[in-house]
What does this fold into?
Amino acid sequence: MRVTVFGTGYVGLVTGTCLAEVGNHVVCVDIDQAKVEGLNRGVIPIYEPGLEPMVRANHGAGRLEFTTDAAAAIAHGDTIFIAVGTPPDEDGSADLQYVLAVARSIGEHLSRPAVVVNKSTVPVGTADKVRATISAALAARGADVAFEVASNPEFLKEGAAVNDCMRPDRIIIGSRSARAVEQLRRLYAPFNRSHDRVVVMDERSAELTKYAANAMLATKISFMNEMANIAERVGADIEMVRHGIGSDPRIGYHFIYPGPGYGGSCFPKDVQALERIARQHDYPARILAAVEAVNDAQKGKLFELISRHFGGDVSGKTFAVWGLAFKPNTDDMREAPSRTLLAQLWAAGARVRAHDPEAMDEAARIFGERGDLVFCDSPDAAVEGADALVLVTEWKAFNSPDFQAMARRLAGRVVFDGRNLFSPDAVEEAGLAYYGIGRGRTLRHD
Ligand code: UDX
It folds into this structure.
């Protein structure tokens, strides 16, 4: 089938590449000339496991093209995906200007029937706006071309996006049009083999499904972080509690890891946007507001533990920071808890020696040259001479350090474990103090 994808960010690039991988002819279009030229040379603008070889192979085979030419791309596709960004505007609502600009462009150039599919995360009711925008642009040029609109939200996790795309849990198709549903079913058939994962619904339900999924997941995390804060105060260990509750199948073990707060490009933005949507419909979404407030506070948790340990004064101290990306297997630092921590450390006059397996270039881009930040080639190098180690992101490479060797490298005697990754006993056996998230045993260091 012939597919056009607007937007070569995470969602568009991964979706386009996976659709090419199963034999479709895909044209990806982006307004960023440099990005398109790079992609045509096989340069992938993001770090995503498995994506680069797949892009190169499909590009080489002629099934995957990148262009800035919207008119040619619109002429190509029977199915046209909109996968451009919906960044938050000043009040936290999703900004639809890019989505609607694409819709206008489709209306200006469409010359034969197509199914227009919205993959960006958009407020409920956007499918109607996309439809109206395309219709208006068609009418303005006196064209009468049949088109359908569908809402087909993505559920890709960064770091596992290719796998999530090739082996989805569910494929949500929101459309009033039987033809659109049929066309998308055929397009997704290669990803839908063992049992039917397609859920067909109306557009608005599909749009809300995406927000509801992310809000539910964010809620699980904020709930666990709240439990961790209670555990810390009452002298319980949240890791025991996590095991204890996860064994109930109604609760489950997934996504109940306490930490330094959720980050990334989706949860913070989507929770906020859904709150705004609710408010616009005169409903105060109390749970969503609390999820956000708990997360904002949690991002300051590591600094709070650090500050308490050092008696409120960290000026002149040096902190080894392991992990800058908002989660492992990505170089993405959007809304990363590390950013809050670094800002707080710097504001308090401390210095940072940081290591991240993938995100150091991104960090250098964000923070620029500064005297109180040194990037280190290895986890060991970061620890050298530091007053403390702070683990922020749970990369596999940080899983089982040699704490005896670490104790010799560190100038100070303390480890702050933002992901409860380490065994407190192993850390303490090496003569280091251990702080985790919600581990009441840390009370004895008070
Ligand atoms: C998320 C959703 O998982 C995905 O379905 C959606 O399409 C886009 O948003 P992503 O942002 O890539 O994907 O990251 P995810 O792996 O879900 O993690 C989000 C954040 O939650 C990270 O900061 C992570 O560290 C944090 N997290 C996750 C926890 O703190 N505890 C957990 O138990 C799980």
User: Anything to note?
Assistant: The chain is about 45% helix and 15% strand.
